[in-house]
Amino acid sequence: MKSRGFEIVTEYKEKNIRLPQRKTVASAGYDIESAVDIELFPHKVTIVPTGIKAYMKENEYLGIHIRSGFSIKKKICLINSQGVIDADYYNNKDNEGHIMIAFYNHNDEVVHIDKGERIAQGVFYRYLTVDDDISNGVIRKGGMGSTGER
């Protein structure tokens, strides 16, 4: 039985998307690439599609971190510092669990990202819950940002 990994979302199956890989034996993160050529406009947030989804155990999440060299060279950051991909985001009905990355461009000019450029890395984490945790058995009904909806 598979416990964690990456898959290509249906919409991107025929678009030559590469699954994330670790580049060295001691790398914690799996390098994630942009699924499209895209421009990040100055002082704006841009959502960049990756064409991938991730599956993991219920007590795990995928942390999305910007690649340090990419961030420094291009002067961009993740708008939310770290993305959190919950286990139940996988195959949700809204977007199939498609991982999208929200970048903020600190430049005064447009920054171009090429399809296939390594833009982030994903690190799998385990987490703990408190005694008497009250999740009320709520099941995710949507995609990005859906856990805050009521």
Number of E-state strands: 11
**Global structural class:** mainly beta
Number of helices: 1
Q: What's the rounded overall pLDDT mean?
A: 92
Distance N terminus to C terminus?
Answer: 34 Å
Q: Strand content of the residues, in percent?
A: 25-35%
Strand order across the biggest sheet?
A: 2-11-6-8
Net shape: globular
CATH superfamily: Deoxyuridine triphosphatase (dUTPase)
Low-confidence stretches: none
C-alpha Rg, in Å?
16 Å
Please identify the top-level CATH class.
Answer: Mainly Beta
Per the CATH scheme, the topology name is Deoxyuridine 5'-Triphosphate Nucleotidohydrolase, Chain A
Order of helices and strands: EEEEEEHEEEEE
Total number of distinct structural domains: 1
Specify the helix fraction band: under 10%
Assign the CATH architecture. Answer: Distorted Sandwich
GO molecular function: dUTP diphosphatase activity; magnesium ion binding
InterPro entries: dUTPase, dUTPase-like, dUTPase-like_sf, dUTPase_trimeric
Domain dUTPase-like: 16-148
Keywords: Hydrolase, Nucleotide metabolism
Topology:
Blueprint: E1 5-8, E2 30-33, E3 38-40, E4 45-49, E5 52-55, E6 60-66, H1 68-74, E7 76-78, E8 83-86, E9 100-105, E10 111-113, E11 118-126
Antiparallel strand pairs: 1-5, 2-11, 3-10, 4-9, 6-8, 6-11, 7-9
Description of the structure:
With 150 residues, the protein is mainly β. The chain has one helix at residues 68-74, and strands spanning 5-8, 30-33, 38-40, 45-49, 52-55, 60-66, 76-78, 83-86, 100-105, 111-113, 118-126. The protein has one domain (5-129): Deoxyuridine 5'-Triphosphate Nucleotidohydrolase, Chain A. It contains one helix and eleven strands. The strands form four sheets. The chain has a four-stranded antiparallel β-sheet. The longest helix has 7 residues, at 68-74. The radius of gyration is 16 Å and the shape is globular. The mean pLDDT is 92.
